[in-house]
Amino acid sequence: MNDKDRYLARLKRIEGQVRGIHRMVDEEQYCIDILTQVSAVNSALRNVALGLLDDHMRHCVRDAAQSGGEAADAKFQEVTDAIARFARS
């Protein structure tokens, strides 16, 4: 299974978890149980994001760094900005 397939499979599971949370709210289940599921979804999304960031650095950024010049600078700035956004969430 390649990276894309793994990400798509994980996102499909996350989508199912979110539907489950929707159902829990609709059925007025215990708030703490719902919050537990929300936390699990947040963690799963964070793991997907970290995986994507790692892949981006290992492929796109590495290739740009080997080429050098403005393209490399742009990729490094792109990663820095992505990490900053990720750190704020």
From TrEMBL:
One Gene Ontology MF term: metal ion binding
This protein's UniProt keywords: Copper, Cytoplasm, DNA-binding, Metal-binding, Repressor, Transcription, Transcription regulation
Organism classification: Bacteria, Bacillati, Actinomycetota, Actinomycetes, Mycobacteriales
Organism of this sequence: Corynebacterium gallinarum
Gene3D superfamilies membership: Metal-sensitive repressor, helix protomer
PANTHER family according to UniProt: COPPER-SENSING TRANSCRIPTIONAL REPRESSOR RICR, TRANSCRIPTIONAL REPRESSOR FRMR-RELATED
UniProt record similarity statement: Belongs to the CsoR family.
A GO cellular-component term linked to this record: cytoplasm
Full protein name: Metal-sensitive transcriptional regulator
Locations listed in the record: Cytoplasm
